[in-house]
Amino acid sequence: MSDRQSSNAYWQANLKLIWLCMIIWALVSYGFGIVLRPLLAGISVGGTDLGFWFAQQGSILVFIVLIFFYAWRMNKMDAEHGVEE
Amino acid sequence: MSQFTLNLLVIGASFALYIGIAIWARAGSTAEFYAANRGVSPVMNGMATAADWMSAASFISMAGLIAFTGYDNSTYLMGWTGGYVLLAMLLAPYLRKFGKFTVPEFIGDRFYSGTARIIGVICLLIISITYVIGQMTGVGVTFSRYLEVSSSTGLWIGAALVFVYAVLGGMKGITYTQVAQYIVLIIAYTIPAVFIALQLTGHVLPQTGLFGTHDASGAKFLAKLDQVVTDLGFRSYTGHHNSTLDMVLFTMALMIGTAGLPHVIIRFFTVPKVADARKSAGWALVFIALLYTVAPAVGSMSRFNLTATMWPGAETGETFSQPAVSLEDIQNREDLNWMRNWQLTGLLNWEDKNGDGLIQYYNEAGAANEPLATVIAEQGLQGNELTTVNNDIMVLANPEIANLPGWVIAIVAAGGLAAALSTAAGLLLAISGAVSHDLIKGAINPGISEKGELFAARVSMAVSILVATILGLNPPGFAAQTVALAFGLAASSIFPVLMMGIFSTRMNKEGAMAGMLAGVISTLVYIFTYKGWFFISGTNMLPDTADAWLFGISPASFGTIGAVINFAVAYLVSAATKEPPAEVRDLVESIRVPRGAGAAQAH
Fold this sequence. Notes:
The structure holds 2 protein chains of 2 kinds.
Chain A: H1 2-35, E1 44-45, E2 48-49, H2 50-80
Antiparallel strand pairs in A: 1-2
Chain B: H1 3-24, H2 30-35, H3 42-53, H4 56-69, H5 74-98, H6 103-110, H7 114-146, H8 151-201, H9 206-209, H10 221-231, H11 244-259, H12 262-265, H13 274-292, H14 295-310, H15 327-332, H16 337-345, E1 348-349, H17 372-379, E2 388-389, H18 393-396, H19 398-401, H20 406-444, H21 450-473, H22 482-503, H23 509-531, H24 558-576, H25 582-591, H26 597-602
GO biological process, one term (chain B): carboxylic acid transport
Pfam families (chain B): SSF (PF00474)
Family (chain B): Belongs to the sodium:solute symporter (SSF) (TC 2.A.21) family.
């Protein structure tokens, strides 16, 4: 039973981390890259605006950082909750 | 040395390398054949995943799609990379923990139903077979252009090569060949891009050159490109012209479709640990990003080079400051050889409609805009004279347009083949696994021995190669629609069912099956309504135009809506029927934690 509870706490922490990463994931692509692009139109980047940079470069770079951040946090959490391999 | 000899040498050397790896990495057991014995390091697996994922579409077509549309097609860049974030957080680690060989096997065990497993097999087969046709056609085209053999001969050579390393080596052989193919394709893609970025902007990195200054005119490169294309009556390159809703839905369909593609998912079964599956998705995206962040630079710069070839004035000053390129130059100038070469393939063509000896390239739809309207009146233009420009030549002709040395051209040819062959092999493995493991061992003959199953896997791989080759030789009319179909189906069937299987302990077999069927059928009906039933032209019930689409949602974007329908139907049906048995809830609990046997026993 105690095992189930500790793995529940682990799962809740995992879900929280996933939500955080998903919000950033959506913000840089659907947000800055598409829907919010007009709001960023004032910030110019190399002959165009910041939204264009996010759509063609920035979102991809943020995706990479997100995956490694998630992997690093989860590996730490696996050990903290005693569920690592 | 002639260009042909160079092509032959470089392509031949790359093939010898792949066959050498295949002989070294033969598979001796089903665990090796399906999952490379789970002994592939996360970095190696990331590289193999990148080659598996980046197909002829990524290597050859994507930069061209961006080149002629500009910002609006950023959807491909974000959509085909963002799916890896979903894979890393929502699917890969848990499916690796589950520890079986195929995607339908997970569906069958989690939803305690052989029927669910068969539905999974059917979805997998439709997705993978439509996808593999495109790869085989790509192999044929590349061969016929660079090795001067007929497209069908090229196809058989490619099929024979895949046969050797996929049938012998299974996942193990494919993985290590894909690592080599990744290296070939990334070198092939990057070298011309670096040369061109240097020529145009003085930047070594195409990623920064895209936002740099155009050396010849002193203007920002993208501002200059916008100016030139709007002068010629095209829509601005950096502007947002399409429906925002459709852009969002299409990007989403590509992302969840990517995460739901079986041949990508099975790659994460090959790493030793759950932690490696997470990291490996990151490495895969690093290797994919090396191409995907370069692609927008290749697209915009090749568009500029093409336009400046047609209107030499655009290079340094005003677009119309010099006359358009002359017919005589196209026929005689050494540096315009590539135009004559590509005309032979039918992918590029021109016609001097007004007989003035010049070839004027512009967009007829924008003919009323100034300064183009004045030019049309002054020069008595009878229409756009660059009559055919195929998207796909932008990458393949790129080195020739920029006058790069012959060995670069040969490497690009080898790269295109590596991209198509590596993806074809991954797809064929997913297909043969579904047939031998899910259909033969799972349903028809459960008592089959390990040796028998390995033999069945090899036979089904050989049969799949044969079917794919025959379909590649006679591509059905819907070959061009494979993107909409494969991604729409993966997004609306496989991704939701896997996610619910992991994130909901309450989801039962009735819900999962109803959801999969509702998602797949709604997506197929929507695509067929606009594209024709089974893509037979003339049988579409509504015209395939933005005005006729429901809320302006294109058929290619509908996978997102199909996924929403899948989730909604699954939850409703599941809530109304009885909950799954206790051992299935235990299974879900156990795949959520990385610790293996220990955690499972505690329940």
